[in-house]
Write a structure and sequence with these properties.
Shape: elongated
Number of strands: 2
Strand content: 5-15%
Helix content: 55-70%
Distance between the termini: 25 Å
Strand order of the largest sheet: 1-2
Length: 106
Amino acid sequence: AKSIAWVSDKPSLKGMVLLPSTAFNIYIPLAELIEVAKEGEKVRKELEGISGELDRASQKLSNEQFMSSAPENVVAGVRERYSVLKEKQESLKTYLTEIEGLSGKS
């Protein structure tokens, strides 16, 4: 993967990750660039950490005492953190599915 090639036909997607664009599609031979098993393990560990952080934020947000006594900026910060973590979790799940597809693992 040391060059860029413009092609008019759809390439074989084996080992590729697609980055769609409105003007064109980018196919990256990710399987050639990363160690798929190690990357999958790294992402799974990151997802575990995010899950724990989401649980803690959710507990705070569902705790009536916290919600009524914490300053509004603190509550807003926890809500924002929860939202950011949720988005990151979804992105990582999608990425994990893609890289597991590179190795044929599901």
